[in-house]
Amino acid sequence: MHRANSLLPVVSVAAQNLPQLYRFCFLMTGEASKAQDIFQDTLREAAFLTANGEPPADRCWFFREARWRCLDVVAHGVQPEHRASESTEVSPQAPEQIEQLEPEQLAIWISAAPEPQRSALALYYLDEFNYREMMSMLGLKLNELSRAIASGRREFQAWLNTTVPAAAPE
């Protein structure tokens, strides 16, 4: 009975974050099958740790663990081509442009970004974490995180403008 009760906090934290954890893995890898494998491996690791009396401390553990797994898988896979770092100011129409994308398009773009920009953008676009949590998970200082997100968003906007042009103002 004690063992089952010790699992409850982990199961609760995991259940609340399952969709976002999978989305994070998908954004980091750009591939559904890799994302699913990493997602499942992360949950198995949490269950293993919990069974051994060392449950994950908080929800950030799941994302930190998944991030390292994603980086490892991506490092051993086909490396994305280095893209030109064309950038432009983030448009007020960006949310509407993003809504027109297929989830795979966003994931492929983010997964091709260099680290730590890739991880910062994946966490940023999940819209789940505050800056303090992102800094903790990524091991970045505020200015480094801010720079990674800002430059990534500007580069993403330049790509977005060529992929899904913004509607002309009426």
What is this structure's SSE topology?
Layout: H1 2-29, H2 32-51, H3 59-76, H4 94-99, H5 103-111, H6 117-126, H7 131-138, H8 142-163
Helix pairs in contact: 1-2, 1-3, 1-5, 1-6, 2-3, 3-7, 6-8
Question: How would you describe what is shown here?
Answer:
This protein is mainly α. It has two domains: 2-76, Rna Polymerase Sigma Factor, Chain: A (Orthogonal Bundle), CATH 1.10.1740; 94-163, Orthogonal Bundle (Arc Repressor Mutant, subunit A), CATH 1.10.10. It is 71% helix and 0% strand. It has helices at 2-29, 32-51, 59-76, 94-99, 103-111, 117-126, 131-138, 142-163. Helix 6 packs across helix 8 (142-163). It is globular and about 55 Å long.
Written as H for each helix and E for each strand, in order along the chain, the element string is HHHHHHHH
Count helical runs. Answer: 8
Note poorly predicted spans.
none
Task: Work out the radius of gyration.
Answer: 17 Å
Overall structural class, as computed from helix and strand content, comes to mainly alpha
Number-wise, the strands total 0
Query: Which term fits the overall shape?
Result: globular
Percent of residues in helical segments?
Answer: over 70%
- How many domains? The number is 2
Which strand-content bin applies to the residues? under 5%
Q: Which whole number gives the mean pLDDT?
A: 85
Q: Give the end-to-end Cα distance, rounded to a whole number of Å.
A: 65 Å
